[in-house]
Amino acid sequence: MVMSDRRIALIPGDGIGPEITAATLRILEAGGFEAEYEILEAGQPALDKGLPVMPESTIARIAELGIALKGPTTTPIGKGHTSANVALRKALDLFANVRPTRSIPGLKTHFDNVKIDLIIVRENTEDLYAGIEFQPHKDMAQAVKVITRPGCARLFKYAFEMVRKQGRKRITAVHKANIMKLTDGMFLEEFYKAAAENPDIIADDIIVDNCCMQLVVRPEQFDVIVTENLYGDIVSDLCAGLVGGLGLAAGANIGENCAVFEAVHGSAPDIAGKGIANPTALLFTSLMMLRHLGERSIADRIGRATLQVLGEGKVLTGDLGGHATTAEYTQAIIDRLADVG
Ligand code: ATP
Which atom of ligand 1 is nearest to the CA of 277? Predict the structure, then answer.
């Protein structure tokens, strides 16, 4: 690794995490990005040592460094340990999860005529993910949905500023306020308060079920979507599916003083250790990190090389219909860097 003044916390994660992390770092280094990575434990490797899924020391160090690149960590369904991701987002108060979705020119997908270029801003600490669940009776389980005015206000402040910074025009709030009148009603009320303070940006709203249908039928109508935690989780996977799948979907968790860059997908245990995972989602995630650090030209160059390789379709991983290994795909991007100037 390159010696540099810039220190970044690195959680390789488990499942395919270490494979795609290694591939991503190789490409970043080949693209001229210099940093020192401090490897921190979380997920299965931490559990194997008898530590919590997201150890306090890992959280504290990320808070000190202010920036982390994170590979996926497994979350078993049902009983067992809580999600490392949810723990991290709550502990560091990473209130906004930013997930861009863009169609890749030339890449064959199930929806070839679809043109998408949108950003989802998902609330990241409240909603049904607040983790308040109980079982008052053996045949009944309940969960509490939490929406707060301050939580909404800081999310919308960030989202409207992001719309302006990115040169976007329109922001759409996604909700279910027709049914959840108090919680989603409050979310929507706060959204329109923020909209009134940002009259230069077009603001509207849509109910989540209709949003899903519209995303499949006419996704080009969306520019920036801002939504609650659970809807954002689901809608962003839908968007990933429209443009080629989870292997391409990048994400960033943003707080007041800290940012954790993490791909949308999970640890993909079904393909872990086989050397066939697609590292693009984590690579695109790392390019969001580079832009956050002001390294726009390196990020743009690596992005162009990657889009060319994907668009040509000759060297693709299995999830995109190809036969390349992670290593072959990684090398194809590195080779292409020489051509993209
Ligand atoms: P989580 O609940 O942790 O988000 P998940 O249940 O949504 O995880 P993933 O681990 O994201 O599941 O995997 C869903 C499917 O997508 C699996 O079949 C997996 O192999 C595939 N997949 C996810 N990421 C990649 C990737 N980077 N490359 C190839 N296939 C992937």
Answer: 28
